[in-house]
Request: fold
Amino acid sequence: MKKTALTLAALLVAAAFAQAQSGTVQFTAFYGINHHLEYGSVEDFVSGYNHFPVMPAHSPRNFGGSFAYYFTRWFGLEYDMRSTGRTDATLTDPSDGDTLTIQTPKHLSITLNVLLEPLRGRISPYVLLGAGINRISAVDETYITAMGYEVIMQTPSEDARVDVLLQGGVGVNALVYKNFGLRADVRYMVVFDDPYQVRSLNATLGLIARF
Reply:
C-alpha cells in the first residue's frame, strides 16, 4: 500500500507543477496528536474470548505531510498521508476488575480532501472534507494482566487491517515570510472498523510552503 500511495503522490505533484502557472501548490509537514475516543461495550464481554471489550480513550502522537493544489483562490484538493504511533492504553475486565496495559498499534491514513479557503490572504482560514483509507500495522503480542494472566493480542487478518476513513475539519494557513508559513489544523475522523466505528480528533501544527 505504501508503494502505491507514494506513486500516486508523485503523479499528483508532477501534474501540479505542470499546471503551476494557473494555480497554487502547497506543501505541508506536520506533527500533532490523534485523540481516539473510547469505543467498545461491556456487553461484548465473552468469558474465555473477549475479556477486555472496551478500548479507553488514548492519545498517540502522529506526523505526516500533504500536498495541495488550488484550482482557484478558494478551492483546492489535498493529498494527505499521516502516520500515528503507539501509546499505552489500560483495558479493564468487567467481570473481575483485572487490568491489562497494552501498546496500541501503529496505523497509516491516506486521504484525499476538498479544501475551501474563501478568505485568501496572509492569514487564510479553511474548511475541509475528505475520505480515504486507514491501515493498522500490528504483530502478535503477549501481555500479562495485573492479576498475572497471560493474554495474547492477535494480529487481525490482512483484509481486516484496512478500513474506510471519513473526515471533516477546520484550520488556518498563515504566511510568515513570502511563500512560507505555519498551518494549524483540527480534524474529526471516523474509521469504519468492524464491529465499531473508531472516532478521533486530530490536531496538528505544521510548516507550509506555497507557490
